[in-house]
Amino acid sequence: MMGWRAGLRRLAPVVVGLGLGLGFAARLAGQERLAAGLWIAPAILVAAEVAVDFAAGLLRGALGVDLIALLAIIGSILLGQNLAGVIIAGMVAGGAALEDYAGARARRELAALVGRTPTTAHRHTDGTIEDIPAGAVVIGDNLLVKPGEVVPVDGALGDAATLDESALTGEPLPVTRHAGDAVRSGVLNAGGPFSLRATATADASTYAAVIRLVAAAERERPPMARLADRWALGFLGVTLTVCIAAWLASGDPVRALAVLVVATPCPLILATPVALICGISRAAGRGVIVKGGGALERLARADIALFDKTGTLTAGTPSMTGLAALDGFSPAEVLRLAASLEQVSQHGVAEGIVTAGRAAGRLVTPVNVTETPGLGLSGLVGADQVMVGGARMFETAGISLPQDGHVAARANGAEATAWVAVNGQPAGAITLTDAIRPDARPLIASLRNLGFRRLVMLSGDRPEPAARVGAELGLDAVYAALSPAEKIGRAREERAHGITMMIGDGINDAPALAAADIGIAMGARGAAAAAEAAEVVLMLDRLDRVAEAVSIARRTRFIALQSIVAGMGLSMLAMTVAAAGYLPPVAGALLQEAIDVAVILNALRALGGGGR
């Protein structure tokens, strides 16, 4: 049944065009009855298609506005206005075809994504390379990626590589990645062959997730589209009222027909979904995945921005800013021992200590390492038993830290401090600072320029570093030392002031992302939980795309509303002229077709522009 209807939908414009042309030829030859038949037949075909769609809507409990077009075609045939009837049929069939074209064009980013999905991977097996389906790759497989191929799964580079990441990030220039760097599926090998160790299966990789997100987003029926449906139903009532009034006032049913002809609500039916799909596709092309038209609408109306601190406004990887050694220990030795031990840690401060240690000298591999989450770790570094962690870990271990002196003073004033003990004796303290991201200040300025009324930080970090970041960025409020539950509470409180947009990257941000009106996750570097909870996901680690996404959303919403207001305004004006008797059915049908085409083409503008 669906195949028959789809075939009829594609065939209808051709049949109508052929009938219209042959009918004119028959009229010129003086064959009026033949001309009438050639015009009536395609009109009845399209009327049947509209009737089937209308009946299907009634079965779903929806009163479709296709009723106007159906009444106009039937009325034209009954009143002998056969030319008007076939033109209306052409308008309906052409509008459907134009909608299909617009939707296909708006979805080209999704089509391009799906078309690039890798189907084959090259796996190293027992000294040989075998071709396997991409879906058969398992975590830990060693793969070869040849020049010009799309990376099949997320993985870690075994060699340096030159990659074209434009499909995910929108950035046109190739980038160089080094051995050990993480690479996401979907990027193109723009250089020589390289090896890759799989860290995810194909279905669990970035590229497959992007396709699922975009496809789901385009299937959603957003609030603006549902609002347009309600407006269209109201328009149906107005149309029938004006139609009946024109008939009663003039006694001429042709005048009522003229009102029906110019009253097709295509601007409402088509403009909104086309514009929103275009906006979603435009954002996807810039590396921003928006999970549906509803999310795009809320993003467009947001005027309060909420930020996580660590990893969002700051680098998320504290760097060493100071080192103080106690008597009997040298700073170089304290750093070497601490950095050697931290090589096996997953804590946020470990990378900064290890980076500084490697720059200062050669590190050794620790053994018998024990890490207590949230406290610190201990293990053997050479012949020394080393402990690195916070003050609480040392208290638990019964090691007394100095209460005065330059080491304690420096540690107490630092943003983050890692104490170091060697063989049960305090050896020194390493101080670290999580620097503000270079693109954080431009983002704040851009959001101010976009009219955001309030910029707030919600952080689980200590009050002192959170206050420092908030002051440097000029935020309106800073709330620190928040648990995930407290972040939810603050996010809900801020919703009383306006439409909230929450930006975060960590697992602890996921509840607040869901609690805000619109959540934006730093998907390129953040936790999977945050990306799942958010409705907008940044596929690259750039904060400027937040402001760009807002700009795209606002432009899309404006174009959708512009198309609705302009299209319906022109239709109402044409109805008034038709009701007064100055617009015959044939001219009205041609005018309404021009309005429909103009409105849909205007909605397609959402595919372009939108940058800051």
TrEMBL record:
Keywords: ATP-binding, Cell membrane, Hydrolase, Membrane, Metal-binding, Nucleotide-binding, Translocase, Transmembrane, Transmembrane helix. Its EC number is 7.2.2.12. Its main location: membrane. It is an enzyme of class 7 (translocase). The keyword Translocase applies. GO terms for cellular component: plasma membrane. InterPro entries: ATPase_P-typ_cyto_dom_N, ATPase_P-typ_P_site, ATPase_P-typ_TM_dom_sf, ATPase_P-typ_transduc_dom_A_sf, ATPase_P-type_domA, Cation_Transport_ATPase_IB, HAD-like_sf, HAD_sf. It catalyses: Zn(2+)(in) + ATP + H2O = Zn(2+)(out) + ADP + phosphate + H(+). It is found in: Cell membrane; Membrane. It comes from the Bacteria. The chain crosses the membrane at residues 35-52, 83-102, 231-250, 256-278, 558-583. Residues 117-214 form the P-type ATPase A domain. GO terms for molecular function: ATP binding; ATP hydrolysis activity; cadmium ion transmembrane transporter activity; metal ion binding; P-type zinc transporter activity. NCBIfam families: ATPase-IB_hvy, ATPase_P-type. PANTHER family: CADMIUM/ZINC-TRANSPORTING ATPASE HMA2-RELATED, CADMIUM_ZINC-TRANSPORTING ATPASE HMA4-RELATED. Belongs to the cation transport ATPase (P-type) (TC 3.A.3) family. Type IB subfamily. This is P-type Zn(2+) transporter. It comes from Acidiphilium multivorum (strain DSM 11245 / JCM 8867 / NBRC 100883 / AIU 301).
